Amino acid sequence: MEAIEKAKVFWVGVDNGDCTDNKIQKRVRTRVERSNETKQASQAKEVVPYKIISSVFGNLRSKPLHLLSSSELVGFIEQITEVEGPVHCDVITKRICDLAGLRRAGARIQQSVQNGIRHAAQLEKIKLQGNFAWSPNDRTLNVRDRSLLDQTEKKLQWVAPEEIMLALEKTVLSSFSIHRDEAISHCIDLLGFKRATVGLCEVVD
């Protein structure tokens, strides 16, 4: 919902030509002055493949996951967030299960991981914003292409609002003129959701 409201405010400013964000106004003017070829090359560099953590330091199979304490889970949560952040808490749970060789997370495992996430945030090993964990290390937010992910992981609700807004902003700023529906479709495409279904469009609009 936060991403939806921000997108609406952003679009109103763009549509009316009265966007109050000086940084956005400056970037719009800069982008308009570029040639189409330069803009396309620049945009291609701004989108990176989504990277899934493949291994972690430590043993997630030493005992049943639901018996791992919050302190024992912190290190794994921190490593996952460092690679995939901003990452939805449900994705962290899924990664921990995958790395432990489990197909799904039962209620007890879900609760244990959620407790571990909160504990990691308290220790400042991660930054928790809503349902998303961010690395505390300063780094640039990128739009990530999820086209190669398993279909079960292609959920727009698992994309941080800030990343959705960045994809939408890049789409608008890289175009001389673009219709709202076309911009939303391209934004979704940048994120790796190749089919702009009604549901996906409604989330971004």
Describe the model.
The chain is mostly helical. The protein has helices at residues 2-16, 22-32, 36-46, 70-84, 89-99, 107-122, 161-173, 180-190, 198-204; strands spanning 47-49, 87-88, 127-129, 132-134, 143-145. A hairpin with a 2-residue loop joins strand 3 (127-129) and strand 4. Helix 5 packs across helix 6. The chain is elongated, with a radius of gyration of 19 Å.
Keywords:
205 residues; mainly alpha; three-stranded antiparallel beta sheet; two-stranded parallel ribbon; 9 helices; elongated
Global outline: elongated
The number of E-state strands comes to 5
How many helix segments?
9
Look at the structure and give the mean pLDDT: 81
Q: Give the strand order, joined by hyphens, for the main sheet.
A: 2-4-3
Rg calc:
19 Å
Uncertain segments: 17-21, 23-44
What structural category characterises the helix and strand content? mainly alpha
Question: What proportion of the residues form beta strands (DSSP E)?
Answer: 5-15%
The percent range for helix content is 40-55%
Order of helices and strands: HHHEHEHHEEEHHH
Distance between the termini: 10 Å
| Largest sheet composition | 3 strands, antiparallel
How is this fold's topology laid out?
Blueprint: H1 2-16, H2 22-32, H3 36-46, E1 47-49, H4 70-84, E2 87-88, H5 89-99, H6 107-122, E3 127-129, E4 132-134, E5 143-145, H7 161-173, H8 180-190, H9 198-204
Outline:
The chain is mainly alpha-helical and 205 residues long. The chain is built from nine helices and five strands.
